[in-house]
Amino acid sequence: MTIDVEHYQNQIKAFGKFEGCKPIIPYLWDCLMDGDGEEIGDDDAGYSVVKFELTIEENEAFEMGDQWQVYLAEDSQGFVVERGKPND
Questions:
Q1: Which of the residues 14, 23, 37, 74 could staple to 50 if both were Cys, CB 3.0 to 4.6 A apart?
Q2: Which pTM value belongs to this model?
Q3: What is the DSSP string of 14-80?
Q4: Vertex 47 angle, CA 43 and 34, to 5°
Q5: Where are the domains of the chain?
Q6: What residues contact 61, with CB distance under 8 A and at least 6 apart?
Q7: Nearest CA to 78 among 23, 19, 38?
């Protein structure tokens, strides 16, 4: 499967749920809607956080370097944001 990075780059330029995010964020949100990701609890702000383990293809396509995990949450205004790993 080839990842259409340009589609996600365009998506973050538009107003709405993903504006200003890294391109991988709307991509991973699509993956979440397809049942991927692991819910790992709430962070300090009370947002439910979902963890994604990146594949080599995802890491390379989105130029994530040494970052192999991404944590996402939807904030109270409906924006999807990257979060830190919640405290254990």
A1: 37
A2: 0.90
A3: SSSTTTTS-THHHHHHHHHHTT-SEEEEE-TTS-EEEEEEPPHHHHHHTT-TT--EEEEEE-TTS-E
A4: 115
A5: 5-83
A6: 3, 5
A7: 19
